[in-house]
Each structure stands twice: as C-alpha cells, then as structure tokens.
C-alpha cells in the first residue's frame, strides 16, 4: 500500500490547526471522518485503512481523513454548548472550504465529487456534509451512526446546530440544493449488538425519504457491535459497491 502522506494548516474557521492524511495514489476520493475524539490517523491505528487495502492497492479508492475537531469538543464538553454547536457548523464549513479543495489539489485539480464515510459521530458528519454540500459529495457511507446529537449540548439548541444537523434542517430544505441531493445516495449501516442503536439509522432514513433523497438502511444483526471490528467489515464492502 502507498505510504501515508499528511499535511496540516491553521484553520481560520476553527481557530486551531487541522490535519489531513492520505493513503493511496489513484481512485475515487473517499473522506473518512474519525469517531468523536479521533484524529486524522485514527483510521490507520485501528486498521480501517488496512481493511480497505485491496481497493487502495487496486487504484479503486484514495482514502483521506481529517481531525475530528468539533466531535472532540462535543464529547468532552469543551466550552459552552453554544461554542460547541458553533464549532460543529464551522467544522463543516472547514470541510467544504478547506479540506475539499485540498483533496481536489491532491487529485491534480480534478474536482470530482467525493464519497464521505465514517462511524459513530463520523457517520453524523458524513451524512451532514453530503446533505449540506451535495455539489462536493456524491454519497455517504454512514456506519453505526448517531444522528440526533442534541443530548451532547445540555438541552440547548441554536441556529448553529440546526444548520449542522440533517434531521433538523432537511424537513425545511427546498430548491437547488435539494434537487442535487436527490441525485445522491446515503447508506445507513448499523449493527444491533452492544452499544448499537439501529433506530438512529431508521430515524435518519425517514427524514431522507420524506424529501425524496435516495438511501438504504442496512441492519447487520446482533453479532455486530459498536466497534472497529464491525466497521472494518462494513467499509470495504460498501466501497466495493460504490466504486
């Protein structure tokens, strides 16, 4: 497998550094969001990159991952709830305005839509960027997702969270963004073992379906837990399907 390449910069939107890592030389670009507190290299340490090695080595996919800046603040209760909700919105803005252009530059200026992927809070971010920026993303692979994140903000709710959360903003979405989104696709996969809640996927699917956005819920059954073992099985299967 091609060695990892990393780059980092100071994000004015986030007011802190962010790192982007890459594995592979050719293929469909895939941006994998870490779990809540993870960094850009979390997916390598937990062997998710290795699980996709056949697809990477065959030149079918080129993997990228970035730090989970907002997710880390969310689960560690850093700052006020209002700050954490604002940071999530700014994180998504960083993705589309900083990370996506960096990926396109790495692709030699090819601005083809990207596949978003992730597990747990990474699944939330994957679905969010697909729904917010369908011009930049063509599909989302959402594994073991948590899509209602209100509980992380101590009962508060601001416009910043509304803008960040698909299950909140999609019901009122109309116009060109929705038209483009209806040509995209979301996979909502979940185990039904320990610490999994497939009901979160069905909730997201109902919201997507009500707006005519193509999606599929894949329940994996009780043998699959909220764990990297599950995600190492899921991700290469879905990448093989979409790429």
Note the total helix count: 11
* SSE ordering: EEEHHHEHHEHEHHHEHEH
Count of all domains: 1
CATH topology: Rossmann fold
Helical content band: 40-55%
Percentage of residues in DSSP E strands:
15-25%
Give the N-terminus to C-terminus distance in angstroms: 18 Å
Major sheet: order of its strands? 1-2-4-3-5-6-7-8
> CATH superfamily membership, which one?
Alpha/Beta hydrolase fold, catalytic domain
CATH C-level label: Alpha Beta
Topology, number of strands = 8
Q: Identify the CATH architecture.
A: 3-Layer(aba) Sandwich
Report the mean per-residue pLDDT as an integer.
96
Stretches with pLDDT under 50, minimum 5 residues: none
Structural class estimated from helices and strands: alpha/beta
> C-alpha Rg, in Å?
16 Å
Backbone shape: globular
Structure description:
By secondary structure, the chain is of the alpha/beta class. The chain has a single domain (5-242), classed as Rossmann fold, CATH 3.40.50.1820. Helix content is 42%, strand content 21%. The chain has helices at residues 42-45, 48-51, 53-57, 69-76, 81-106, 121-132, 159-164, 166-169, 176-181, 198-210, 228-242; strands spanning 5-11, 16-23, 28-33, 61-66, 114-119, 137-143, 185-190, 215-219. Strands 1-2-4-3-5-6-7-8 form an eight-stranded mixed β-sheet, with helices on both faces. Helix 4 (69-76) runs antiparallel to helix 5. It is globular and about 45 Å long.
